[in-house]
């Protein structure tokens, strides 16, 4: 056989394969770096977009917080106005109480009962007086119970006094006034 030296041919093939491997490696590296740069840009873009959304949501949340704050202020003002209206309403209902009481007092107090003091506090009327006989005070209590705007008459004390020439018994009574009387124009 003849003596053929294949070493230079193998070395040239290996050099070509090495060169081809380096080209493929550099192309793969370029593609990888390009993909990484594109992915990084896309992620940064998405992050920036999400930050813009977050800023928009925060600004809208701040606006809604202001609106809710205004609504709570409006609710507080509404409650204050309702309280004032209720107070005015109670004053309007109570302003005719003394006139009504003095108009109907002659019908409530039977003959033989004499009132010495009448005190109105809130919805309670305190009456102190004298009577010739206990049944007359009982008649007064029955007359109060017939009224729809007065209720809960209570006789707190009744006792005989030693006043001459006529012996009168002293009594003390409490009545309550209804806030709203049905069917009665005040």
UniProtKB/TrEMBL annotation:
GO biological process: type IV pilus assembly; type IV pilus-dependent motility
Keyword Transmembrane helix: yes
Transmembrane domains' residue ranges: 21-43
Source organism phylogeny: Bacteria, Pseudomonadati, Pseudomonadota, Gammaproteobacteria, Aeromonadales
Pfam families per the UniProt record, alphabetical: PilN
Keywords: Membrane, Transmembrane, Transmembrane helix
Protein name: Fimbrial assembly protein
